[in-house]
Design a protein that fits this description.
It is a single chain. The chain starts with about 25 loop residues before the first helix and ends with a strand. The chain is about 35% helix and about 20% strand. The protein has 16 helices and 22 strands. The chain folds into two domains: about 375 residues, Metallo-dependent phosphatases (Purple Acid Phosphatase, chain A, domain 2, 4-Layer Sandwich), CATH 3.60.21; about 150 residues, no CATH class. Helix 10 packs across helix 15 and helix 14 runs antiparallel to helix 15. A hairpin with a 2-residue loop joins strand 7 and strand 8. With about 575 residues, it is of the alpha/beta class. The chain has a nine-stranded mixed sheet with strand order 1-9-10-11-12-14-13-16-15. InterPro entries: Metallo-depent_PP-like. It comes from Paractinoplanes abujensis. Keywords: Membrane, Transmembrane, Transmembrane helix.
């Protein structure tokens, strides 16, 4: 006799229900669209947050308060076979498709890459910017925690539970680390899906097998590393000896950014000189995200790796130098380390592909950022009405009420264009080209507005009874001039990028989701470290729910090919 009734779990045991669709009520979070980085309100909000972080960041700095939290380092050096696999991913909490594509691959038991089988990492290292555009509880839930929980819902059956460590980036810092600490460092039994969280602070030290160590420093606000953090790492470094080798995680690749600002690398150099070098250890690898691509520089003793392809928009590599000098000789720090040259080895995508992708700005900026088109349309309509009123000189009182003085509009356009070019301080190298680019961009928009005004005055609409001209300007002229102004800005972004100005905005405005990357690292029993840089040329945009799958398998599977490949041959370090 068979029992047709479903078997119930033992009393008190909760069996999680796997979603049968991509509806938010079943997933437990809302899959998000990619951030439109040129959206007017987002530009204003992000700019204000960045300004507040710069002006008042020291007053909101929770690193000092973290001294009251558990200050122990973590020991992952003991494994059954003496080996350890680690995964590194950064810049991940953006649109669902890109973020989940990478999370899905990281969650699988193994990946076939370049003819080799690469097992899932026992440690998952997140290198910064786990959420975009601004840190908040809801943002983390929808853009990072939810997708990663869907990728690995439960600890893997039959093997040890993997551990997740996260380092904050600048976007994680915009709320002073409040949401970051709550998610990654608050609870002793914390977990994100099948990954457990162990860290208690925004920085951490981990002992790895075969005399390897991982140090992850939180050096936001640039110029210094706080005393509680230095004390934490000094305590951990007491267990480090001359036979040890170190992987150093940083929130940003200051070795690249120091090309334009030599002081950028000073904090990292100080940490290596004061904390690691006195122990006799060798720092063999520096790894960071923040720049949304893969790039590697090296000399015989050290690898400098940027890998920020975890989900955020792609940033091209066409402006990377062929060689880095680290530290920069021009830094004002007197006791810096000896400067050494690091040769360029590989980037993903390569410079040629990046330049080709840059030309997509004309198509992608309008489609990805409709609010930006609308904003430029409004600005140009108001400028045209002001110019038309100044040219006519006899506008009626009603028309004048809807016109902003021409001088105000011209100042607004010039000031906005210069601010958009982000000129650095006058004592920084290359600051003049930012001012020149911004001014030329502003004058180009004024020229477009003058041309639009001439056309307007040669059409019959401006002679109609008011408010007829205003209606036509808003309904007909506005959309057309908004599109043309957007194309003008796209042309500016493309040309300015050749001078190293607004390169980030050239790609942020496009929101390119493909060309993702992450690292899979392997510490072997012989003590060697092998780094496998993995590329995902095309993300998946169609997902199939798997309601009948095992508890530890992904909720959603790719409905189209999702194929990882090698960026370059494995990098072996002894």
């Amino acid at each position: 006799m068979t029992d047709d009734h479903p078997k119930l779990p033992p009393t008190g045991q909760v069996v999680p229900r796997r979603p049968g669709s991509m509806q938010p009520r079943e997933l437990g979070f809302t899959p998000q669209r990619p951030v439109g980085w040129l959206a007017p309100l987002l530009l204003l909000s992000t700019g204000l947050r960045a300004l507040l972080a710069t002006l008042f960041g020291a007053y909101l700095d929770k690193r000092e308060l973290q001294n009251a939290l558990d200050g122990g380092w973590f020991d992952h050096s003991q494994t059954e076979d003496g080996e350890l696999w680690l995964d590194y991913v950064a810049d991940l909490g953006d649109g669902f498709d890109a973020t989940y594509s990478v999370a899905y691959l990281l969650a699988q038991p193994s990946l076939e890459v370049g003819g080799a089988t690469l097992p899932r990492g026992r440690l998952l290292l997140m290198g910064g910017d786990q959420v975009y555009p601004l840190a908040s509880g809801d943002g983390y839930e929808s853009r990072m925690k939810g997708p990663y929980r869907a990728a690995l819902p439960e600890p893997p059956a039959g093997s040890a539970q993997p551990t997740l460590f996260a380092l904050p980036g600048n976007h994680d810092w915009y709320d002073g680390l409040t949401a970051f600490i709550r998610l990654f460092a608050r609870r002793k039994d914390g977990h994100i899906g099948g990954w457990r969280t162990e860290q208690r602070r925004s920085y951490f030290a981990v002992k790895l097998p075969a005399n390897w160590w991982l140090f992850a420093i939180d050096e936001q606000f640039g110029a210094y590393i706080d005393d509680p953090q230095l004390q934490y790492f000094e305590q951990a470094a007491r267990h480090v000896g001359p036979q040890d080798r170190v992987i150093l995680m940083t929130p940003s690749p200051k070795w690249v950014k120091s090309v334009g600002n030599p002081e950028e690398y000073d904090a990292i150099d100080y940490f290596i000189r004061k904390i690691l070098d006195p122990r006799g250890a060798t720092t063999r690898v520096l790894v960071s995200g923040d720049l949304h691509h893969y790039a590697r520089y090296s000399d015989p003793e050290r690898e400098l790796i940027t890998c920020g392809g975890g989900g955020a928009y792609l940033v091209g590599t066409q402006n990377l130098p062929d060689e880095l000098i680290v530290p920069q000789p021009d830094t004002l720090t007197r006791n810096r380390s000896v400067s050494r040259p690091y040769a360029f080895r590989k980037s993903y995508p390569d410079a040629k592909t990046s330049r080709s992708l840059g030309w997509g700005v004309f198509r992608r900026v309008p489609t990805r950022n409709p609010g930006f088109v609308t904003m430029l349309g409004i600005i140009h309509v108001l400028t045209m009405l002001a110019m038309a009123g100044a040219a006519a000189g006899n506008a009626g009182i009603v028309a004048r009420l809807f016109s902003i003085p021409l001088t105000v509009m011209l100042v607004l356009i010039i000031a906005g264009s210069v601010a958009f070019a982000q000129p650095p301080k006058a004592d920084k190298p290359g600051h003049a080209r930012h001012w020149i680019a911004g001014l030329l961009h502003g004058f180009a928009h004024i020229g477009l507005a003058a041309g639009g005004t001439w056309l307007w005055l040669n059409l019959p609409f401006h002679d109609w009874t008011w408010p007829g001209p205003l209606v036509v300007a808003a309904v007909v002229y506005g959309p057309v001039i908004g599109f043309l102004a957007t194309q003008l800005t796209a042309l500016y972004l493309l040309i300015a990028s050749f001078a190293g100005v607004n390169v980030n905005e050239l790609f942020a405005g496009q929101g390119i989701e493909d060309h993702k990357s992450f690292l899979r690292l392997h510490i072997a029993r012989d003590g060697s470290l092998t780094i496998h840089p993995v590329a995902v040329d095309q993300i998946c945009r169609k997902w199939t729910p798997d309601p009948g799958g095992a508890a530890d398998t992904s909720w959603l599977h790719p409905g189209e090919p999702l194929t990882p490949r090698r960026i370059e041959e494995p990098i072996k370090i002894r």
